[in-house]
Model the fold of this input.
Amino acid sequence: MKPSRAAMKSIGIVWGQYGPYHFARAEALQRLASPMEVHAIELAGQSRLYGWSRGATPNSVRTLCPGRAVEEISFTEAFKGARAEFARLKLDVCLLPSYSPRQYAATLLAAKSLGIRTVMMNESHAGTARAAGLAKWVKRRLVGMFDAALVGGGPQRRYLASLGLPPERVFLGYDAVDNERFAAAARHARLHAAELRRQHELPDRYFLSLGRFVEKKNLECLVRAYRGLLDSEPLAATALVFVGSGELAVPLQELSLSLGLPVHLHTPGRAATVRGGG
Done:
């Protein structure tokens, strides 16, 4: 018999590598789940995909493969490491970031081998689905191994239902944030607005884009739309600020210059801020 909520004592929440915003989510879940314990688990301390410069890692985060990138970990390493950690923590429930790539499939199988209930955290929907034929069959089998799912909205719920996961076991709330933390930070920012603008070289008014400089973010469209705004409103006093890093940093700068947008490059640490103004 599966444990009831009252009987559960230990929850694990897994990501390949914890980014800065994941820390806040794990802490908020710990507060909500009390008196149950919430264990933050990451497969590796680095990620080639995200390349986060996240500062110090909280002691509460357990790293299965320190000094490694997620993409370097084999299926066998992920399975053995996750299984040993899940067993040591005596997890009742484990939240997992989907079933792909292989490292996540390994953690799913590790949890199921121990009889741990699994919840898939997923943002996929029909518009992003690519699998067909045998690949889709495999996906349906993997999705069917989860006990429940936590998704971002209706399209994601419908998509998982189409893969065989009962709709009543698919819950909304994956894109939640820690409102208390953001409210406190916002109050601090308002009190020190002038100082923070000088520190980060920010204009008075601006649109903000925060994310990786990669193809899937379609930032070229944003730059061109901003040029269109300035063309239709020549006196617009709102700048466009990009914060992030990635392989398209230079192409985005070149596009901005070709469209007559002045670019101010500011690189604190590994992050880059590109500012275009009319």
